[in-house]
Amino acid sequence: MIKARVTVTLKNGVLDPQGKAIEGALGALGFEGVGHVRQGKVFDLEVEGTDKAKAEADLKAMCEKLLANTVIENYTIAIA
Question: Is the pTM of this model over 0.90?
Answer without folding.
Answer: no
